[in-house]
Design goal:
- 38% of the residues lie in helices and 19% in strands.
- It has helices spanning 35-38, 47-59, 70-83, 94-111, 131-136, 140-143, 161-170, 193-206, 276-291, 294-312, 340-347, 369-388; strands at 14-18, 21-24, 29-32, 87-91, 118-122, 153-156, 174-179, 182-183, 189-190, 209-213, 237-240, 251-255, 319-325, 328-333, 349-350, 352-354, 358-361.
- It has a seven-stranded mixed β-sheet, sandwiched between helices. A four-stranded mixed β-sheet has the order 1-2-3-15. A four-stranded antiparallel β-sheet has the order 13-14-17-16.
- Strand 8 and strand 9 form a beta hairpin.
- It is globular, with a radius of gyration of 21 Å.
- The structure holds pyridoxal-5'-phosphate.
């Protein structure tokens, strides 16, 4: 084995998938409640996605951003329309989308005459593993060993308005705020709508860019295209990746208002970013979400899964909280529960544990009601056995 040892891998490998099920090398079937970490929006082997990718691969996979790319123009128009934003830069991953956002904020600051621009970021945030994005991440484990970190980030507690107001008074170098409307890796922590609206107002008053990382919570998962839309606000910068193309690598950084028109030719780029294959996969993903009503389904399924778990686990000691929005679900226990991942695999279920004691579910949006019920039954049994052991 010549793979670098940078992942804690489970001892299972899959050969194929169908809908929300995966099949391993022994032919065993698993209910997938992780969806490749919020990536497989349409589940596995969705016929429309497979067809679109195959047809595009037969036409054109990659040219270059040296030329016009029609599929990229179409996807940019589509995303800008859904998000009410002005411009889109395409890359290949979430950390790259956030790198673009960070560079935009710095350029914005320099244009305002701020030589050492700072970006407000949150505790328990996750923004990626590149040097700038791990510096923006609010988790020491992600940063340890990689110092010196990139400077220019100011950290505050999540969903805490007075903390932001204090920074506003004390730090004239701040040019932007970057946060996840729902923190994923941090344990499914939801920013209140009132907080987001107040933050929007502070950004307007101060001339800060309001930047949302929707890499995990975006693309229909919470019942709206983008989670910040629950608060009825528009960001200046939004980053996307994970679920955007249902598994084909893609990232996007969208801008509006004061954040639009900042980059000029030569300021930023990506060789692969926005290639025809990835853009067609994203356009197809968006079409299917819309035409099959999957955002409304995400709400119904999320309510059913959270409600079902609450009922099934009502008499079990050790459940701290069952929370989430749509198909972004966290079950917080009163103790570390990483071993649940392996136990679930043994039972034929794929889940994740984050922040040490939060079982995280990020199912695809194509679950049937019966799949959701199966997930509740399997998971409730596993959690009960674990807590009562
Ligand atoms: C996963 C994630 C990232 C990083 O995305 P990569 O594609 O792994 O670089 C950034 N932000 C959030 C909120 C994420 O969940």
């Amino acid at each position: 084995m010549h793979l670098m040892n940078n992942y804690n891998r489970q001892p299972v490998a899959f050969t194929h998938g169908e809908g929300c099920y995966l099949f391993d090398e022994q032919g065993r079937r698993y209910l997938d409640a992780l969806g490749g970490i919020a990536v497989n929006t349409l589940g596995h082997a969705h016929p429309r996605l497979v067809k679109a990718i195959c047809e595009q691969a037969g036409r054109l996979i990659h040219t270059s951003n040296v030329y016009r790319v029609r599929e990229q123009e179409l996807l940019a128009d589509r995303l800008a329309g859904l998000a009410h934003m002005d411009e889109v830069f395409f890359c290949n991953s979430g950390c790259e989308a956030n790198e673009a956002a960070i560079k935009l904020a710095r350029m914005y600051g320099h244009q305002k005459g701020i030589d050492l621009p700072a970006i407000v970021v949150m505790e328990h945030a996750f923004h990626g593993r590149t040097l700038a994005t791990l510096s923006a991440t609010g988790n020491r484990k992600v940063q340890a060993g990689f110092e010196p970190l990139v400077s220019g980030f100011v950290r505050v507690p999540f969903d805490d308005l007075p903390a932001i107001e204090q920074v506003a008074v004390n730090n004239p170098n701040v040019v932007a705020v970057l946060f996840e409307p729902i923190q994923g890796e941090g344990g499914i922590n939801i920013a209140h709508n009132g907080y987001m609206r107040a933050l929007r107002r502070i950004c307007d008053e101060r001339g800060w860019l309001f930047m949302v990382d929707e890499v995990q919570c975006g693309i229909g998962r919470t019942g709206v295209w983008f989670a910040h839309q629950h608060a009825g606000i528009r960001p200046d910068v939004m980053t996307l990746a994970k679920g955007l193309a249902s598994g084909v690598p893609i990232g996007a950084c969208l801008t509006a208002g004061p954040a639009a028109d900042l980059f000029k030719p030569g300021n930023h780029g990506s060789t692969f970013g926005g290639n025809p294959l990835a853009c067609v996969a994203a356009l197809t993903t968006l079409d299917v979400i819309e035409q099959e009503g999957l955002m409304a389904r995400a709400v119904v399924l999320g309510d059913a899964i959270r409600g079902g778990l609450k009922t099934a686990l009502a008499d079990v000691a050790g459940i701290v909280d069952i929370r989430g929005d749509g198909l972004m679900i966290g079950i917080q226990l009163d103790r570390p529960c990483g071993e649940l991942v392996g136990r679930a695999i043994a039972a034929g279920l794929l889940i994740n544990v984050t922040a040490g004691n939060v079982v995280r579910l990020l199912p695809s949006l194509i679950y049937s009601d019966a799949d959701a019920k199966r997930l509740v039954d399997m998971l409730a049994t596993l959690i009960r056995e674990f807590l009562e052991a």
